[in-house]
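Handout, section 4.2: multi-component inputs.
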Amino acid sequence: MTDSRGREAELLRLERQYSSWGDTVHYLDPPKFFERAEGNYLYDREGTPYLDLQMWYSAASFGYANRRLNDALVGQLNRLPQLASQYLHRERVELAAAIGRLNASKFGAEGRVHFNVGGSQAIEDSLKIVRNATGKTLVFAFMGGYHGRTLAASAITSSYRYRRRYGHFADRAHFVPFPYCFRCPYDKKKEDCGMYCLQQFEKNFDTEYNSFWDPKAGESEFAAFYVEPVQGTGGYVIPPRDYFPGLKRILDERHILMVDDEIQMGFFRAGKLWSIENFGVSPDIVVFGKALTNGLNPLSGIWAREDLISPDVFPPGSTHSTFSSNTLGTAVALEVMHLVAERDYEAITTQKGAYFLTQLQALQRRFPRVIGDVDGLGLALRVEICGPDGHTPDRALTDRMFAAGLGGDLDAHGRSMGLVLDVGGYHKNTFTLAPAFDITHEEIDLAVELLEQLIRRCAPDRV
Amino acid sequence: MTDSRGREAELLRLERQYSSWGDTVHYLDPPKFFERAEGNYLYDREGTPYLDLQMWYSAASFGYANRRLNDALVGQLNRLPQLASQYLHRERVELAAAIGRLNASKFGAEGRVHFNVGGSQAIEDSLKIVRNATGKTLVFAFMGGYHGRTLAASAITSSYRYRRRYGHFADRAHFVPFPYCFRCPYDKKKEDCGMYCLQQFEKNFDTEYNSFWDPKAGESEFAAFYVEPVQGTGGYVIPPRDYFPGLKRILDERHILMVDDEIQMGFFRAGKLWSIENFGVSPDIVVFGKALTNGLNPLSGIWAREDLISPDVFPPGSTHSTFSSNTLGTAVALEVMHLVAERDYEAITTQKGAYFLTQLQALQRRFPRVIGDVDGLGLALRVEICGPDGHTPDRALTDRMFAAGLGGDLDAHGRSMGLVLDVGGYHKNTFTLAPAFDITHEEIDLAVELLEQLIRRCAPDRV
Amino acid sequence: MTDSRGREAELLRLERQYSSWGDTVHYLDPPKFFERAEGNYLYDREGTPYLDLQMWYSAASFGYANRRLNDALVGQLNRLPQLASQYLHRERVELAAAIGRLNASKFGAEGRVHFNVGGSQAIEDSLKIVRNATGKTLVFAFMGGYHGRTLAASAITSSYRYRRRYGHFADRAHFVPFPYCFRCPYDKKKEDCGMYCLQQFEKNFDTEYNSFWDPKAGESEFAAFYVEPVQGTGGYVIPPRDYFPGLKRILDERHILMVDDEIQMGFFRAGKLWSIENFGVSPDIVVFGKALTNGLNPLSGIWAREDLISPDVFPPGSTHSTFSSNTLGTAVALEVMHLVAERDYEAITTQKGAYFLTQLQALQRRFPRVIGDVDGLGLALRVEICGPDGHTPDRALTDRMFAAGLGGDLDAHGRSMGLVLDVGGYHKNTFTLAPAFDITHEEIDLAVELLEQLIRRCAPDRV
Amino acid sequence: MTDSRGREAELLRLERQYSSWGDTVHYLDPPKFFERAEGNYLYDREGTPYLDLQMWYSAASFGYANRRLNDALVGQLNRLPQLASQYLHRERVELAAAIGRLNASKFGAEGRVHFNVGGSQAIEDSLKIVRNATGKTLVFAFMGGYHGRTLAASAITSSYRYRRRYGHFADRAHFVPFPYCFRCPYDKKKEDCGMYCLQQFEKNFDTEYNSFWDPKAGESEFAAFYVEPVQGTGGYVIPPRDYFPGLKRILDERHILMVDDEIQMGFFRAGKLWSIENFGVSPDIVVFGKALTNGLNPLSGIWAREDLISPDVFPPGSTHSTFSSNTLGTAVALEVMHLVAERDYEAITTQKGAYFLTQLQALQRRFPRVIGDVDGLGLALRVEICGPDGHTPDRALTDRMFAAGLGGDLDAHGRSMGLVLDVGGYHKNTFTLAPAFDITHEEIDLAVELLEQLIRRCAPDRV
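Output:
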């Protein structure tokens, strides 16, 4: 034990000297090490388990060290571990076909799949498709949206902090308020707002003076609208059911494409293969990544409607990346597609999600002076930590609970345990819960108990 | 066999329907499938071996299915296959330290390492570092240079084709002629040019009217110069020894950073860990990827001088990527670092490269009406296919040889064999050879024999 | 008469062949010629007078062929008609001082004046001041705002039509709804809206996710807000009294500059030297032009607070234009400043404007099925032509009335007369009235009579 | 006298307080006042004449206070001094026709004229034409070129100083070395260079890797090349006769437009109506201003080929400016066109220019240690002040001579006189001479005498 602590101290010393701190590791001080992962749990150097409610921001939805998916990786490793992406291999082709077929049935449109690595690079590819098809560069995106951290992805991600030190962003999106009803951007009440937010968006096309539309030419200055149907980093915010159908109609009437970013919510996080399916909308382009390989490989990709991506308009050489359809990633992803063909993840995530949400609602009722809002769609759940008024964001308490969870000394029926949470939301006061799909009802109960312990420990005066 | 051919036909049918053709697969018609990879060879569905002289554009320099590196992957897979990048794990820390220590000794400067996935995203991170440090956006880059295909990377990659259909590139680099002496951009002779190209570059800072420099303010409009010390996609072009020292002096005098893109040439491809070491120059930022994991994971990264990347100037949250320091990639990369610490790859690649180059020079002497230029640095070698005059680029012949190599019916001492080549260069007439570091002298001889067969077969009238 | 008609036909033929139609002449078909101008009237080839209610979009506010100002031009013409702008002449210095002194007293801040030609170029100079002072490029501007037609001015002018065919505008403003209460962008009622539009604007700074503000750094992505206190081309829209004070507070708290575009409303059009004075707000930069020379010279200029424009921060050579402080323009402008020092134009325009507005309100009461809104501030008045419901914009009728006014056959107490109107507004259904300051009550009455004739002639079914 | 000096001191005090110093007035300390202008002379407060060899940078080529042109201004002032530009007046139509007809005969192409005010705004209009016609934004321009100081004009003007403090210029031109043979950018000798500079430019289209051209698509990334046939601010640099024909051929082959900026050199400054005529080249767009009104009004304009500017492609509303075709400016400009139709300015400027150049060459022979180069085309002449080696630019001496000329105490055959020079050139060591076209041989002799006095006074050690 002392040894392991000593090793970790030495590692921290090295890290302080040689590692960039520019990523998100140092949001926690000191940073946290983990040594092992399995199922729903991470383990620290002392073997303490941490129930994980974030699963690598939904990248490892099928469970850490999922045997079947790990085996798929090893299988490919032993056969064709490397291959230049200009040559074909079976899994790549079958993977594209599996996704293409599903989307054809879901969206009633033929299309094609293009692979890359990392969600941001798939976003970049989608931007190329959009620009190529429309001849335009400007896009809409949502306030609270997150699409990655390459420069072009940062230009369409609302947070100004991501751009501030990096010069002028010539392609900065126009950001539109998301229907975040708990904190309505227009201070309306969900019950009687009449979709005021949609009306406001549509108003932008009233006259040329609104700046977006030339009625004479029947043309918009904007090529596409980038959407996360359920916001990820924005705090797992779930829109009202009618929002996206209304939005799509407005966009269609103005010949503006809808690009559906499913990087975080795709692969059943929100109860459907693609979260947009919850709203009965057929996007023009879908971007995906993360859980595609259960986190074993950064493979990502886009699906686009045939007319946007056919070889005629998006010919050989249009884009490229060394690792774009790497054999290891495609092999794992193909196994994921087999898995989701075999098991009814729609039912699984919907049922477990409903149970989890019910428990969270009960928790909220017990702690109305701590929890302002809970909501969920599938196994994407949110718990918003607020002040005693149930509305004012309480970021400080959120941070304390997050850190306490990582302390590893909660009581899981007599056993020491930690809780791994993820903090998101406009006010950084929201726990965005993305448990593994194999989580059991008992583990959900345990999770809620541990959350309660965190509340009692961190906000004793409000319980 | 019939079965395997039928399976491939079915795959091709699927591919035609569901796969984007936007990458480089369809440069060849029909595309080529491979099923297995090991050592220096790829194998097709019939088990025919293809001697590989491109090793995934130098991503698999340590050999396909390298046992030791594959084992490192499996080891991590069984222990900690997934972990959100906001938490630490041992290999990540040790990998950064290993690179940081080496660079400190090589460049005499402390610095830090930042990880990401895919070379382009590392380039994006370097652009952030540059913009943050200088407050400027514009950069120089080389004609013939290649830095990736995200939008920002395409803006600094010379080929207009990569930008043409994607709108306006507000950050387009100013592209400077590379010292490609076989085809001197200034029509000079290497022997007596007096480094005219460097003089021309320096002239740009003579007066404010040259457009780059404000003598009154002592400030350049340009923040950095992105260089590949040996051009990759540009055709493995090797500059004269004095070029980069001269360039660095000019840049230093104008406070312009040098960003060294080692994505393709790093990890001993050109005889040194970093190809820039061949020229005795210390860059301000180094970008690397590809061979870092021997192609088993898209891990990439940058190293930057402490003053550019210290937590003071590049604080937590500056950039991020879900898979940026993924556990599988860092575990393999750490094993690569162990490997290169144990074996003297500098000697290996230099010695084998010299032998290979000698054989290629002999080949050129035998076929002066086909080969215009051969050159090499370490195991980065080039063969430029030209017309009978030994200078006019012959792209058609290059393409025929490339396709014939993939036919798989060359004669390797009685055994059928293919040859996998990569075509690059300004005129697409250059074979850029990047053999595995474990290639033997016998295999080098075999490679040259196979090249000769290709020449005899594809240009019978010129032999 | 026949001769003059023949001459005009010949001119029209020439015009069709050799003139660009890219300006606004061909909005009317056939275009209209005028031959003489004096006082409140333009005269066509047959000597028919046209009462002018637009006075060159407020450029000739002091009356056509104003004797005193014309004499000032001739005086300079005989003395110093030309001089390179790098040398000084008396009138330039005195003009800058006159404006600087007035603004110091009005805004309680020292500042300086910089001249140029054409309103757009003054806007360009103001953009230089803003960028230089803030290190930022992005600005806010109003929907319905108009700041000129250079590329940079078009980027901050809302109408997309002005940008559509001219490529990507990397510096496109973010456009904010103007408080146009007759057609509230938020569908609120003026009486009880609680300045909802201001609240909405302020909300943009709530969190970093709104895209405009980094709370950690206390910094906005936006450098300035360009405002027309009373919109010009937008339709002489007059905001509620409390809007601008509230806006300025929000901007001050976020260190965002306010640039006040007075090109059309300056020089007493809206009852004060600067229209912003109506709202008790001190802008950081004022841009002016048009009436500065009563239309005799395109002289324009900006005034900026000392800390933004002092020689320390805006040193020699910062900008330049051959004609920037031309002797003819400055001589006339100086005479304008003398004129406004001598006569109480604040009282004149306020009093006459009130009378005119009263008559227009009476007209509206007589024709509620034609006029939807009338409003005015000083001698900037608006008449919005609507459908029978008094709200739906009726652009077709507006166009008919406009054209009929130019027919020259209205009845001015027995004499043939025309009426020159200007059409503006988001829906192109607004007559923006800018009569000469010397207009008499009798002429105002005549104007209203002529308007009534136009209504009766063009909308006989609605009177 | 004392009074006038006191008045000037008071004006200087005012100027220090209320005037922006951001223009070029304060290049001289203290700034210089003038009170009267006539013919070839400016007069200071004491009545001392200054022979003017710069004529407002060629804006007043027809002489200060030219009676005929002044009368044209007064005529229009008394008739139609103001008129909104959306209405027509005779002079505007006739002016466009006069220019259109001349260009049709000169360039063998029908076209149209579009007016604006200020050279920069005409440049902006030309950029709109270029972008509209090509769908592209990027342009080439020359190192040493000057096209104005709006943001877009600064983006295509080489001097970085004009951009440095104003943010990121997303449309920055690619700047190409001008054939400035006295200081050849490639260090070649005019006699045997074989137009190396043209070859270098053409090389840029060799392969896609040069960054400008996609051979597959047959398309350039660049839409146009902005040229001053004789550089103005760049130092009245005259290219070899064959340069522009060669350049036009290269551009035509790549479908790149040539925009000919004649703002400074147009109207016979360089011996022809347009300086490009000297080289037998037909540009696609011509931009003009300055001498168009002899400096009496900032009227400017462009002429473009019919297919680029016809109402079909550049319809009503494409651009606009309040003063764009103002009546005063067009009246004067029309009179200028009459003047040049009546008098043979081609012969006048060519003959006088030849005489002036001969005298300057003699001067150079007398002072080889002061004058490095003299050259001239028409009445655009250059004298490059160098060190004793006849080549090293001597800016300090140039400045001293400039200032001494403004001292007003040179000896003009017994009478006190000043000499007004303009300094330009890449090294700010060139007197760019633009005398009035009415200058006599006696005045040319006087000018050379005064220059000699300046040399003797400011460089006594080198005479």
